Amino acid sequence: MTTTSNTTILIIEDDQFVRHSLAVYLGSKGYTILQAENGRVGLEIFFQKNPDLVLLDLRMPELDGLEVLAALAQQIGEVPVIIISGVGSREDAIESLRLGAWDFLVKPIRDMTLLEHSVNKALERAVMIRERHRYQQELEKTVADRTAELRHRETKLKKALVGIVDVVAAIVEKRDPYTAGHEQRVASLARAIAREMGLTSRKIEGLHLAAIIHDLGKVAIPSELLSKPGRLTDLEFQFIQTHVQVGYDILRRMEFPWPLAQIVHQHHERLDGSGYPQGLKDGEIMIEARILGVADVVEAMSSHRPYRPALGIDTALEEINRHRGTLYDADVVEACHNLFGEGRFIF
């Protein structure tokens, strides 16, 4: 609560008798009084002394009260300005309040307790406003500090998780040396397609990491089956297909900031429902999985495999284009074609 002993009031009034009377009365109540005989001097004193409250007349030479109010527009939010006017018209009162005045009193003030009451209420309100602003600033600082701390922790966590993903990817690659580098190449293409399509940075980040370990489930597939040079039997192919579910079962037990398990689980799904393991259709397949599915097919077809030579990028692009809108997302296929066709991506 503000006390009168450390509170300064500026009186801007051209009538010397009125100004003196106000100064004597408020001074007797313990306030420190500053006086100005016109608006120009009043503004000079205001910016030099920073008073706690202003009593302001409206009709004055050089600068009238309304002009002073306009000049103090930025400060009025926390510094009370009370109009004391001998004119007392309704229009003046409305205009004064519109410009930010806190109260409007009419001269002559026959009962000084009315003035004292208005001053006290204005000062109490000013203290509450300052306290609210101080609390808001402290709260904002606390929130900013806490947010920075959480971001720092999230960054450290992401680095740790990325490290784990890299280790897992290396293990998978060791299990299937004939496709070494497949996951990294698929991840690079998937990220490029996602950027071409305008996905958010968070989605791109999650997609890239999911692509690096999208074949994680192959750790459960015998090495001799992964590297078999001849054509797989139907039973062997069905066994190979289980790697998607295995990868999902491993990843879903871990908490990541991105939906890695779901992306890996869906990357062999196709728009017409012919994919696996869930037979999802169209809108049931998340966009990251649609992108990963196309990137996986393009890289696999353009690279060498134990059971066939590399088919080349042109054949791979023809394949996804032939099945755009049926197996593969049309927008994803278009983005992929643009990247290769315009020479903005190569393996």
TrEMBL record:
Keywords: Phosphoprotein. It comes from the Bacteria. Residues 8-122 form the Response regulatory domain. Gene3D superfamilies: 3.40.50.2300, Hypothetical protein af1432, L1 transposable element, trimerization domain. GO terms for biological process: phosphorelay signal transduction system. The modification 4-aspartylphosphate is found at D57. InterPro entries: CheY-like_superfamily (IPR011006), Cyclic_di-GMP/3'3'-cGAMP_PDE (IPR052020), HD/PDEase_dom (IPR003607), HD_GYP_dom (IPR037522), HDIG_dom (IPR006675), Sig_transdc_resp-reg_receiver (IPR001789). Pfam families: HD_5, Response_reg. SUPFAM superfamilies: CheY-like, HD-domain/PDEase-like. This is Two-component system response regulator. It comes from Desulfolithobacter dissulfuricans.
